[in-house]
Amino acid sequence: MEKPVEERIPKSLIWLCVLAFFSVLNETVFNVSLPDIAAQFGIEPSAANYVNTSFILSFAVGTAVYGKISDIYGIKKLFFISVLIYGGGSLIGLLFHFWFPALLAARFIQGAGASAVPGLIMVIVTRSIEKQHQGKAFGMIGSTVALGEGFGPILGGWIADYVHWSYLFFLPMMTLVTLPFFLRTLPDEHVKKDGLDVPGCLLFVLGIVSFTLFTTHYEWWYLTISFILFIAFVLRIRRAKEPFVEPALFKRKRFIVGVFVGGILLGTVAGFMSMIPYMMREVHQMSTSLIGGSVLFPGTISVIFFGIIGGSLVDRRGARFVMVTGLLLLGAGLLIVSLFADNNPWIISGALVLIFGGLSFVKTVISTIVAGSLSADESGSGMGFLNFSCFLAEGLGIAIVGGLLTQLRLNFPILPIVTDVAAYLYSNLTLLLLAAVIIGGAIFLIAFKEGKASLDK
Predict the structure, then answer these.
(1) What are the CA-CA distances from residue 2 to residues 12, 96, 132, 154, 457 (Å)?
(2) 397 to each of 17, 105, 256, 444, how far by Cα in Å?
């Protein structure tokens, strides 16, 4: 007789999902406050977006590093250290919010600590839950993470409007109170004595930072440096005794397709969501609290439903069916926003429900596919690299959208139905993001043709 789902999922995973909500909340909680931050410091949107980009970059790096070293130091010890880092970064931000460099540093430190939770959750699922039930577990995680990402702008808008955006740094400090409780639920594990490939890690991280600078400043020497660093990284992992990322993983189609498509789709949606506060304020003259509490709220609530349903459907109908459904939801939502950017703002709110729903489905599928390509010994580095790539893509997506908003290269009429001059830029940018979703979906569907859904491992 099959065990009920509650017995198949460790208690630690359930409680860590609660903490994951608060950790990922910080990825988007500053979204609707970015215009206020830009105005307070007198900076462009591309510079203000670094408040989110700095968090997401360190968050992305952390998910890869924590996953990789979980075999060396153990999940419990890493979790304890990361929560302390998370709280420390929040305290710095609260005390020094009036100085922009300190604000960026605080967000970077926050990301370095918060990244442990979703990264280590993935490792726990891959190691302790049977593959045939991982879809439900990843659905629960995806629902929790998407809820945190979606609820962030709502809470952020309310606090920014009625108090001040700097008090957003107070929220993560509450997680310190829960630390003893979570440590009691985490399982003990045997650890290995392997070392961390520090040079490989540094080469990869610096390459990503250089590329991100290129996407916001469009200085070609940043791209050149990034290219050189990535070549050095590839050479390093091929020669290192304990490489930062196992080269053998990149020979598996299932792993490569999952990571690449996940990066494209999640980065596209993250960039789109960073654009929404600017669009709703400039085109519809909405307040920060109204954007978060009304426009984004329906989509935020919907992720609970979509995450649970998506996880069950992956186990019952397969990854391809759920991915197609998610792509259709994403595409429909983006098309509606592009067509009706200057229309009733509540149409935008309805479109966001579709986008959040599609995002929940896509996250569940990507996690399940990549997990299915890994052995138990590869779960740390493999799932860590997936998290790294997806969160990194989100940071790049936000940075690219911020750069396009600043440079105004898309500020001209394309769709006849859009007549407000202020909406041209946002409508056209959404069309560009829709094209990215179509490309990512096409890559997935070509790779996972009917009858070849398993690919080679």
Answers:
(1) 21, 54, 12, 40, 27
(2) 25, 20, 20, 19
Which token pair is 325?
């459904």
Distance CA(155)–CA(178), nearest Å, equals: 20
Provide the 3-class DSSP secondary structure of residue 62.
helix
377's CB contacts (< 8 A; 6+ apart) are none
Cβ atoms of 277 and 34 within 8 Å: the answer is yes
- In this predicted structure, what is the pLDDT of residue 7? 44
Q: What pLDDT, in 10s, does the model give residues 169-216?
A: 887 777 777 677 666 766 666 555 566 678 887 887 788 777 766 765
Neighbours of 241 (CB within 10 A): 7
Which residue, among 338, 295, 371, has the nearest Cα to 438 in the 3D structure? 338
Give the long-range contacts of residues 17-21, CB within 8 A, separation 24 or more. 17/121, 17/140, 17/141, 17/144, 18/144, 19/117, 19/175, 19/178, 19/182, 20/117, 20/118, 20/121, 20/141, 20/144, 20/145, 20/148, 21/144, 21/145, 21/147, 21/148, 21/151
159 contact partners, CB below 8 Å, separation of at least 6: 165, 167, 168
Residue type, 186: L
Per-residue pLDDT of 391-444, as tens digits, reads 778 778 887 888 888 877 788 888 889 888 888 989 999 999 999 999 999 999
Q: Is the pLDDT of residue 342 over 80?
A: yes
pLDDT at 309: 78
Rounded Cα distance between 179 and 198, Å, is 28
